[in-house]
Amino acid sequence: xxxxxxxxxxxxxxxxxxxxPADGAVPLADAAVASLTGDAAVLAKAQAGDHVAFAxxxxxxxxxxxxxxxxxxxxxxEAEDLTQEAFLQLHRKIATFRGDSAFSTWLHRLTINVVLxxxxxxxxxxxxxxxxxxPSPEHGPARSFGAxxxxxxxxxxxxxxxxxxxxxxxxxxxxxxxxxxxxxEHNEIATLLDCSIGNSKSQxxxxxxxxxxxxxxxxxxxLQR
Length: 225
Prior knowledge:
By secondary structure, this protein is mostly helical. It has 10 helices and no strands. It has helices spanning 9-12, 28-34, 38-47, 51-73, 76-93, 103-121, 158-166, 170-181, 186-193, 197-216. The protein starts with 8 loop residues before the first helix and ends in a 9-residue tail after the last helix. The relative contact order is 0.09.
């Protein structure tokens, strides 16, 4: 015969938290978070509404988000404002992140979308959709578009190059940053900017031409906008 199980008077009337079993076992959701490490654990907590964890995400990623905004906009004040806007959007949408890509990649695309929405609200004519792909007479015969431009790499001083990129006209700068710095393909840029692939290639070509002109200038004069 099995011994009769009697109630433990010492624990029968002790209330237990709805999230913590009486036996002290870790709940499944908490156990899943506990099994994560580093950034993944911080992200999981932030998605669950932990404000301290979200502040940690901000500290981890704010420099990269600001740098991306600055490269795309070329304006410090606007870059600071849109960095804050990007993290406000992140706070609203973080629960929708499902891990199909790296979190940094997801945040990167969210930031680009914030910048593009800002530019559209300003009514900035980013690119001329009617512009022909034929090169200007002073640029000589046509050349292939989209391949890495080795003349813009190598021993160029980084600060000089960054300054030259900042001084590019807005449309040229945006496509140069997306393609040559952020690594987007022309078909992706065309989708982001709602333009043709050929136009993206043309704008990139002209951006590179302007950069070469700026980098050849020993006086470091700013590019004409």
